[in-house]
């Protein structure tokens, strides 16, 4: 099932309790695609960067096997999306320091003709009207799933609610689910989001795992248990979870509940490699064999009975 993603390709600044890094490669689309490419290829990217996009970021993205960059527009006179965030001591919560929209304030990137047969669409974090614009170009899709973020819930709620009526699934974190619904319980919040349109919702809870609320039932996965030294930078872990999840569905070619349960496990182990480094490096230096080994380890850890 051909899988397409749109979202941000970003230049990130990240503060953790022990380090500060500037100009690292990031963006919701980049993390998603790098994670999904372990499971399925090609992953079709639709996005835009400006003339300030660092050469090393381009080389890194180009070095990742299984990405199709035909839909990546380079706009020389524009600015790349840039984001800065600071993690609190527990590394499970963060605040946004700045968001510079850059290319996101311009016309959405064009979808290449060669992407027209895409059947799975992932709308990684971006302005909801950009997400909607892309979605409307794929009337023949089989599954559309979206993520969103505090900024868009604050400034573009109306567009977000229009988007939610059109999509099948939402992958969101616990704080955003609460912001959207004013409900703290993630399962009840997910049910409230389902009333807004989608047929399933995954609420990500950082180090506490994730829960899938689906019309056929509920599934939960814990996070992969990492020691302190394995958690260097959580940025992009949510997008990487979504990439592992959707990538598995694309390779399985099936949209049923059982496949989604397995996909939750793949999303979890894929995301665990993002946490170990700043930027895309964690995913870019991981092999499929390491991923398989970690899935086996995860299955042992969660075994019941
Ligand atoms: P995550 O940690 O999974 O929520 O994803 C963080 C990534 O999303 C970073 O690499 C940022 O560049 C990107 N990002 C941050 N804020 C936004 C936003 N409002 N819209 C789209 N992408 C964003």
Task: Give a nutshell description of this structure.
By secondary structure, this protein is α/β, with parallel strands linked by helices. It has helices at residues 28-36, 55-63, 128-135, 150-155, 157-166, 174-181, 186-194, 237-252, 257-274, 281-284, 288-302, and strands at residues 3-6, 10-15, 20-26, 43-50, 67-75, 81-87, 94-100, 120-123, 143-146, 169-173, 200-204, 210-214, 217-221. Bound molecules: adenosine monophosphate.
Order of helices and strands: EEEHEHEEEEHEHHEHHEEEHHHH
On the 0-100 scale, what is the average pLDDT? 97
Provide the low-confidence segments as ranges: none
For the biggest β-sheet, the strand order reads: 5-4-1-8-9-10-11-12-13
The distinct ligands, each listed once, are: adenosine monophosphate
Structural class: alpha/beta
Radius of gyration: 18 Å
Give the number of helices: 11
